[in-house]
Specification:
Elements (H helix, E strand, L loop, with lengths): L5 E6 L5 H18 L5 E7 L5 H9 L10 E7 L12 E7 L36 H25 E10 L4
Parallel strand pairs: 1-2, 1-4, 2-3, 4-5
Length: about 170
């Protein structure tokens, strides 16, 4: 039997302003598909260091996210490269322009103890002209590893027939 509660996770919500805009659209579509009576648990998730007071103020100011509308909104301090929901519970997983943030810098190929950060290499972005191929490859490998982990985690969290919408930027 499927859960009577529809669950949405918004991963990388930041301050919440953009999340609320597309979240309202997601709620509208859920209501059209599943009816007005079914409760919705909507989880705004970002790193524990996020400004959670601002996130809560942002979604509480939006009528679509009120409990009177059958929406129960939560703020979750979590790293989206780790599990963010129990197995087989999420109906819709969202992440808008957050996946370019990697779990951490890659390690240099010549010295595994030295991460390739802005402080340890003489460039700003891995795709800049003059960046050694080994450095570009290290960043590309880290991005691939992180994206693979992110998608595997989301697959485990989603119910059968659940959907993920992930908007990414890149260079």
């Amino acid at each position: 039997m499927s859960s009577p509660v529809l669950e949405v996770q918004d991963l990388g919500c930041s301050a919440g302003a953009n999340s609320v805009v597309y979240g309202k659209l997601a709620l509208q579509l859920f209501r059209e598909k599943h009816g007005e009576k079914r409760p919705i648990k909507y989880t705004f998730s970002d790193l524990p260091s996020n400004d959670w007071s601002l996130v809560v103020q942002t979604y509480m100011a939006e009528p679509a996210f009120q409990t009177s509308q059958g929406v129960f909104a939560f703020a979750q301090g979590a790293d989206f490269y780790m599990p963010c929901a129990p197995h087989n519970t999420v109906h819709l997983s969202l992440s808008m322009i957050s996946l370019h943030w990697l779990s951490g810098p890659p390690h240099a190929t010549d010295d595994q103890s030295l991460p390739l950060t802005m402080n340890t290499v003489p460039f700003t972005l891995p795709n800049e002209e003059g960046v050694p191929a080994s450095v570009k490859e290290a960043w590309a490998t880290q991005a691939h590893t992180d994206l693979t982990r992110f998608l595997a985690l989301r697959c485990g969290e989603m119910v059968e027939g659940g959907e993920g919408i992930y908007l990414m930027v890149g260079g």
